[in-house]
Amino acid sequence: MPDEEVGQEIDLDEIEEVCSAATPGPWFVRSLDDDYAMNLVAVSTVEDTGQGERWPNFDHREMIAATLVQHPRYVDCADERWDENAAFIAMAREAVPQLVKEIKRLRRLLSSAE
């Protein structure tokens, strides 16, 4: 962490506001196929079926984000961590609000102890 950031308090209210404005969770990783049956890794509001549905046989309105879209190739990270990135995004939907709640609880405890 750069020196200028040390000691700065995180704005938990802003984080809560962003979380509240996002599509409600839970979110899930989906392994799908695009129109040419190439991999499509996405974050979705519904669980993966294990069927690897091929476009257009999945509901695009359930998709939150994509970490790999190969055809046309316009979502693809250089380190090839598509699955890991999708898992992180999906996990963060639940974890970030929980972490904010815990930090606020701990701050209250510290305040009351002082």
Automatic annotation (TrEMBL):
Entry protein name: Uncharacterized protein
